[in-house]
Amino acid sequence: MAETSTAGVPPPPPGAIPPGSEGSRSSFDLLSFISTFGVFITLVGCVVLFSVLDNDFAEIDNLRTQLGLAAPLLMLSLGLTVVLAMEDFDLSIAGTLSAGGALIVVLIVNHDWPWGLAVLAGMVLGLVIGAVNGLLVSYMEMPSFITTLATFLILLGVEYAISDGRNITGAADMPDLYRDLGVGKPEPWTEFTSPVWIAAGLAIILWVMMSRTELGRYMYAIGGNPEAARLSGINVKALRALGFVIVGFVAVIAAVLQTARTASSIPGVGISLLLSAYAAAFLGAAASGRGQFNIPGTVLGVIFLQTVQSGLTILGYDRDVLNISRGSILVLAMFLTRLGAQRR
Questions:
Q1: How many CB atoms lie within 10 A of CB 317?
Q2: What is the pTM of this model?
Q3: Domain locations in the chain?
């Protein structure tokens, strides 16, 4: 049998895998697997653990209750996802929720405004706050972190001026239609309350915007490389400003759900949700496997956080443990996001 000629064929480079032997080396990457599925696996593990430790955790009524309680947090997290996708930060979202909620409750309870008009006034406030942040960050080129931190502090002062720094309770003065936005009767075919449906509707709208429209693709392009996006004809400044306007609007919707549920305005209520909102968004980025902020991932992050909080509360742990858990989860989210970026 004649030998096959190898003349003129260059030798393979050092370390090259011979043709046909690709399958002999395992292609499984443990770190990539952890960075992609770590959040989901941990969520499943928490559900199993809490269900074993307390049978009440797995009850369907508890599930419905927790989803309703998580609705304001989900809305804040969804709004943050939009600006984070463009590599911006918005710390003022907590102040917008607090000041917007205080304004709405004071107008309804102390000034007898129709609830619809009061909500409209709150929405206008949120849009103005978002527009100011967008103007300063996008057009004046001020850093988003410091700018929105300053706006947040200003809004805390505005909230205290509106409410005199005290709780405004108005269960007897709030119309039933307004209260139903926060604690409405469950729908007969699903038993989910109004906040769940409102938050789910917003999630779908923002998911379509970010994933299925040119607007969303442009926003991701800005987050990837703003200068390249500008050179390609994208109006970077206008879209970044729009992101802050969306955040301001969404924060007021969250304030409506929060104040309707509690029938009150509590000073600084937005501060308690700020860390969790960022943790949910970063968990969602970690779950994407690409470190990219996205709406479905943020929803998963909120479910994760609410699962941990609900489980620890049912087991009787105090607020100190809850706060330590939130901070630890945020560190975990940052670690997984960074790990995924390194693997890419």
A1: 14
A2: 0.84
A3: 37-42+55-343
